[in-house]
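quick one before i forget lol
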Amino acid sequence: MAEKENSNIDRLMDVEMDVTVRFGLTEIPLHEIVNFGSGSMIELNRTVDEPVDLLINNFPFAKGEVVVVDGYYSVRITEIDLDMNSKSALLSKSDKNTPQSPPAQKEPPTGNPPQAANPPKAETPPNPQSKPNPQKPAPKTKQE
């Protein structure tokens, strides 16, 4: 049984995971966000000398300092926050915390695309030269 578990773990070791570096956080009211433009400044809750957080699937796992290597931002890990239990939790959270696209709809056997039960009817703009629709009252016009 242990051999099978090791085989499953070995398969997971090649799975690539997104690592996010979080410089800081802040809360901003929507009325300020809609006024953002080029040059807008957002003040975060950290100073430049504080460590940044490293996250996998929104799960914090380490802290580090920002450095530049060959012109690229990099992070030197200064602290790992994972024990074996946290590593298991990280892997189990990977499918729960990541944004998921909506499940794909199964196509009907005919191969036709799925349709809504009551699809909305498309409205066409009225043709000024056509006769009024007898089902709808004619628009009232102002007489002078």
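fyi The radius of gyration is 28 Å.
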